[in-house]
Amino acid sequence: MSRFSAHDKEAKLNVALKVARYHTDVPPTYVLRELGLLKAIDHESVVRLQSIEWEPSKKSIICVLLPAKADLKRWLDARFPGSSVIPM
Questions:
Q1: Fewer Cβ within 10 Å of end Cβ, the chain: N or C?
Q2: Can you give the residue ranges of every domain in the chain?
C-alpha cells in the first residue's frame, strides 16, 4: 500500500491518500468490506475516510482520508522506547 499527501482544492483541506493495488479482476471482498466499515465509522479515534476511488484499469483503489491527528508509531515509540511494537 502506497501513502501520499495531497490538498483537496474543493474542500480546502489537506488529505491523505492511500493506494491499494490488487492482482485479480476485482478487489478482494474483504477489502471492500473493510472500506465499507471504515466509511461508516465516525469516531474521534478512527481516521475519517472521505471517499473511495476505484480505478479498474490500474487494478487499484484510492482512499481519500482526513489526516490523522497523531502518529500511532511515534506515540508507541515514545511510550515503549526500545520496543519494536510496530515493525517498519
A1: C
A2: 2-79
